[in-house]
Amino acid sequence: MTTTQILAPTDADVRALAAEIGRVAAAHDAVHDRDATFVVEAYAAMAEHGYLRLAVPAELGGLGASMRQVLLAEEELGRWSGSAALSAAMHLYLTLLQGWRLRHGAADAEAVLRRVADEGLVLATSGGSDWVSPTTTAVPVEGGYRLDGRKVFCSQAPAAGVISTSAVLGRPGPDAVVLHMGVPMAAPGVRIEETWDTLGMRGTASHDVVFDGVFVPEGKIMGKRPYGVLAGPLLVAAIHFAPVVSAAYLGVARGAVEEAVRLAARRPATSVRAVGEMTARLRVARWALHAAVAEIGEDPPADEATLLAFMTAKRHAVTEARAVTDLAMEVAGGPAFFRGSPIERAYRDVRGGPFHPLTPDATVELAGRHALATS
Prior knowledge:
15% strand
C-alpha cells in the first residue's frame, strides 16, 4: 500500500499504514532497546509512507486522518513498537494541534502543516519538562528574545526539525509571563545532549535539548500565558496530547496481551480467568479513550472540562496498560522474564505512561476540584 493513494483514509487504511511501519520498527526494536538508540528505521519508513503527515488536512497535502483515526494508528503501531509509537505520538499530537490552530484563525498554522506535508518536517516538544513553570528564560533583545536553558524528555530529538517549547519572561512567580514558540533545531545555540538512558521507551531518544543564547524573533511567539497556570497554548497542547499518547501505551499493552495469549495457548495449565481479565481490562480502557473522543468531538473546546475528559481517559489508559502488562507477564510465565521477550520490553515500556502530565494523582485532584467548583 502506498499512502499517496489515500485521499480520505478509512479506519482500515490507517491501521494498515501503522502496521506497515510497525513491521519495520519491530525488526530493530531489540537493538534500539539494548543500546538506547533512536528508532531510525521506523522514522525512515514513516517518511517513505507518509505516516508523519497522517493528521495534516488533505487539502494541505496530508492524509486527512481524524483524531480518532490517529488513535487507531498509534494503538496499532504501539502493538509493534512502543518507542516508535511514543516518538511519533509527539509529532502527531502537534500536527493535530496545528490543525486546531488553523481552524481557530492562527495565521502561521497553515505554513507549518504544509512543511510537514511537503518537506517532511518533524515536530518535537519539550512540554514534559516545561509544563506550567518552565525554567528556561526569555530575555528581551532587539527584535525578539534570547532563550537560555535546558529541556529534558525531548522525545525524537535527533529527528526533529522544530521543537515546540516555552520560556519564562521575567522573574519566575505569579507576575511572570510564559512565552510559547517553535524553535528550529538548526538555530544557532541549539544543541542536543545525549542523556537518555532509562528503564523503558529506550528507543525514543528523549535527550536533553539545550538553548544557549538562542534568538527567537518577536513574530515567532505563538502565544502567552501566566506563569504556573495551565492555560492558553499549553492547555490546547495538553488536550491534544493526552488521547494520542494514551493510544500508544494501549498499543504496547495490546502487543503484550497478544503475545501472552499466544504463549498461553501452548500451556494446558494456563489460567483462563487471568487471560479473560487482561483482555477485558484492555478492552474497557480502549472504550474509555474512544468514548472521550466521541464525547468531546474532533474540534475540542479549549477549556477545563475538555482537559479533564481527556486526562481522565489518559489516566485510565496508562494505569490499565501497566496492570494489563503485569498480567501478561504472569500469564506467559518464565519465557516473558527473558530479555528479548516482547512482553519483557512492554513491561518496562508501559512504566513510562504515568510520568506524562497530568500524572494519575494530578488527574484525580483536577477531577475533584472541578466537581467542587461546578457543583
